[in-house]
Design a protein that fits this description.
2 copies of one chain form a homodimer.
Chain A (H helix, E strand, L loop, with lengths): L1 H28 L3 H13 L1 E2 L1 H8 L3 H13 L3 E5 L7 E5 L1 H9 L3 H11 L3 H19 L5 H6 L7
Helix pairs in contact in A: 1-2, 2-4, 3-4
The first copy, chain A, binds a DNA duplex (30 and 30 nucleotides) through α4.
Amino acid sequence: MDRTDDSLIALRRILRATELFGKELAHAAGLSPVQFRVLQLVAEQGMSTPKAISVQMGVTQATITALLDRLEKQGMITRARSQVDRRQMNIAVTEKGRATVAEAPDPLQQRYVRQFESLKDWEQAQIIAALERVASMLDAEDMDASPVLHSGEIKPS
Amino acid sequence: MDRTDDSLIALRRILRATELFGKELAHAAGLSPVQFRVLQLVAEQGMSTPKAISVQMGVTQATITALLDRLEKQGMITRARSQVDRRQMNIAVTEKGRATVAEAPDPLQQRYVRQFESLKDWEQAQIIAALERVASMLDAEDMDASPVLHSGEIKPS
DNA sequence: CTTTTTGCTTCGCCAAGCAAAGTAACCTCA
DNA sequence: TGAGGTTACTTTGCTTGGCGAAGCAAAAAG
């Protein structure tokens, strides 16, 4: 079907664009894309743990340890042993980290958001409906997609 | 705006899903995601060059050289100096490579396509419109997005 | 027939990923 | 309570993917 191809092509364009934006963004912030992602995650949640981050990003803890080492060395985050569960480390964003995230606004978001918000109401609604439809077609049967979003709960110190 | 957030969330779901599929797929094929992508590219086009691949993937040629080394060692592709322009290498997929791509059908495509094709006509049209809209919002100013698809022309040997 | 450009490789480097093994803290249940 | 298992994290050692710079050979431009 032509139709299917069209939709796949559009999807790929989206993927490609976001990939490039990711690089751009991270470069601007002086961090690698992955480092920035971690920083964003922690900043969003105010506080996190290596375990939680590893689950959210779908990588092993060992990888996160290394990433946090680098972010810590750059003064973006701090590690502190949790008082509640002394096995856990509480990861917090420093002022510098917070500033980095804030000042390097996601270019994807920036550009896209600006345009999206200039759309008419019904257009926005329609796009959201379509995106959600596509998203659910993609991750519907992905039985561990939703768990991932909720597991790795953290008890902050 | 809530609306904007909704659309971004849907977008991220899409990104996450495709990322996971990428890993899944590559794992099934016994190749890394990146290696598989290269193989797919070459297979699609029947023949390519390191330069063309590097442009299409947005990485340097040095990176491609290394990737091709691995794919060649695994007997997935062959390198042959072009007779037309002796600076160029013609990259071709071997039978094994072709089989690998064929037998490890893109799970993203599989699952998504099946569902997409079961949609009503007007739904398909609407989704395509929305996706294309989003894509163009994302890569509109990215002046080399479209060129990328066409540049790196190759004169096969 | 130089000079510049292009296409590819090599080299040396670093980041990101994994698995496996190690350590410390927590939990269980007998 | 205390022995054995589980959980959270780190360390180690390895592979892959990525880059820039340097190099070489071929082609294109003067």
